[in-house]
Amino acid sequence: MKCTRVGLEADVYKYELGKNLEDGFELWSDVVTQGWIITDFLIKVKKTNGSIECPFIIHRRGRTFIGENDYIIIDSDGTKHVCGADKIFDRYQPVKGNTKKSE
Fold first, then answer.
1. Residue 59: which domain range?
2. 22, 26, 38, 90 - which has most CB atoms within 10 Å?
3. DSSP state of 48
4. Is residue 37 helix, strand or coil?
5. 103 inside domain
6. Per the domain annotation, does 40 fall within a domain?
7. How far apart are CA 61 and CA 59, in angstroms?
8. Per-residue pLDDT at 87 exceeds 70
9. How far apart are CA 2 and CA 26, in angstroms?
10. 20-55 burial: b if 16+ Cβ within 10 Å, else e
11. CB 36 within 8 A of CB 68
């Protein structure tokens, strides 16, 4: 069945450390050894104790790790998603007359 996406207003933010867009961090060693994901483009944050962590968001299907140039989408109901820079503006268009700067 073909469907179109139901209109839902969302805030879209290019991911940056220190903006509290992530829900947490996972040790890099755990991401590499316990996950089934491609790790090449993931953001790695080196902590003062020398450990390396990766930021993630939590949603109803688990965790999604945040990669370089990713955007964080926060729907009007608070649901978070991660979307790559290569697809974000194919899926989301800025709301006309929007005075709130999300990016």
1. 10-91
2. 22
3. T
4. coil
5. no
6. yes
7. 5
8. yes
9. 37
10. ebbeebbebeebeeeeeeeeeebbeeeeeeeeebbb
11. no
Does residue 102 fall inside a structural domain?
no
- The amino acid that residue 5 corresponds to is R
**C-alpha–C-alpha distance, residues 24 and 39, integer Å:** 17
**Which helix (H) or strand (E) element contains residue 54?**
strand 52-59
The mean pLDDT of the chain is 87
Q: What pLDDT does residue 14 have?
A: 96
pLDDT at 58: 94
How does pLDDT run across 31-73, given as a tens digit for each residue?
Answer: 989 877 889 999 999 999 999 999 999 998 899 999 999 999 9
> For residues 59 and 78, is the Cβ–Cβ distance under 8 A?
no
Structural domain tally of the chain?
A: 1
For the record, the structure tokens of 2 come out as 């073909």
As a whole number of angstroms, the distance between CA 69 and CA 41 comes to 9
How far apart CA 69 and CA 43 sit, in angstroms, is 9
Residue 54 contacts residue 25 (beta carbons within 8 Å)? yes
